[in-house]
Amino acid sequence: MNFALDPAAPEDSASGLLAVPYCGVRSPLVERLDALVGGRLGLLAGDASAEPGRIAILNVAGGDGVAASRVALVGVGPGGDIDPAAVRTGAAAAARAGRGFGGSLAWAFDPDLRFAPEGQVRAAVEGAVIGSYEPGRRKSGPRGPELQELAVVGAPEGLQEVARRAEVVARWTNRARDLVDGPPNEVTPAGMARVAHELLDPVGVSVDALGGDQIEALGLSALAAVGRGSANDARLIVLRTGSGEPALGLVGKSVTFDSGGYFLKPQGDIVKQKADMGGGAAVIGAVGAIAELGLPVPVLGVLPAAENMIDGAAFRPGDVLKTAAGLTVEITNPDAEGRLILADGLWYARREGARRLVDVATLTGAIRGALGDRYIGVFANDDSWRGEVVAAGDAAGDDAWPMPLHPRYGRLLESSLADLKNTSGRSFGYPIFAAAFLERFVDGVPWAHLDIHSTAFLDDDRDEFTRGATGAGVRLLVELASRLAADQPGR
Hints:
Largest sheet: 9 strands, mixed
Structural class: alpha/beta
Helix content: 25-40%
Strand content: 15-25%
Number of helices: 16
């Protein structure tokens, strides 16, 4: 998709659809455009709504002083309640409408919105790019219309870098979505490694995919055990940007399909389990964006990738596994496999010298009961680091919420047979127990755990996203890396 930030007046944009933000009142921009179309936009306002994402469209056929074929009033929130989420939602809806109108969309910058120019441009670009996502690329028939051109028109000079950054981050968010939406017969551990190469080689990211013998030689026995029940061998996919000791280690859970193992998932749940590699997809998307933006911060990405399947070699309830960190784990639930492969992934990131850690995982269904489908749950062993992660998510549109991690939860994971067990056996606190398990493998390094189970894959349309994959975590991680880069000495 071609993208531009155009300082020309909105009425001069010869696009298929000119989208004008609407907050329930006639702004000077709406008044000016209305005059150019003979008052017909004012009549359209009777069908318009300030509700974010609502659209009313007027055909103008490139006449009456407006170069576009159509003008749309797009809801971005009532009155002064304008925020980035509302603008993203409106721009996404406009992008979906624009696909059918010649494939070109111009979003009119409105200087009279009570919203900072940088924020308005960033939200409009992100929303339009995310809204243009089309998951049906594997259909055999003719593809539906796609958005070919996007411009933000009438914006002030000096915001090109803001717009470019927003487009890059949103585009990599869509690439993560495409991975999560992908079929599990293609997105196997080896398939995920192949896609990582295809996406990341062009932006200069080093990609290594370690296979069976290398995994065993490194002592990644938990990862090996989880993948042993599948015909598709496990991989440890390692991504590197920059040089020197990594300032940030990102570990993404990459269970490319999760049957639940010998605790087989019910039918209503198992059909969604291709999305259990959403954490790994988020790390690929974030590392790609960090590299393309040229952020001067060395980043290490670690993706332990496996299928949790059932055959005679699959790990069982009652097994005791030895992790790469040397800790032994009694398996009380083979459907709690994500924390096992993350344990080995975190150990590897520490081994490679990562000074700060973030793991991203579709780890517990119970996080949905706590936070719904909007917030990422953030656990950490360091209050300051947790605060930085939450702030980055909130600023980037990946809304995050701080979650507790008390020592009592760790004690409830003690096993009589091994160093710890992979579930507590309690009927409460599942997300906290999972985080407490992971904390045992970070060795005091500042670490945060992002539970994205409720946000990575949506059952219904929400905000700028349609049903399906969201790329949850990409925007948060890029914002976090940006802030770390800005804090480096000499900058």
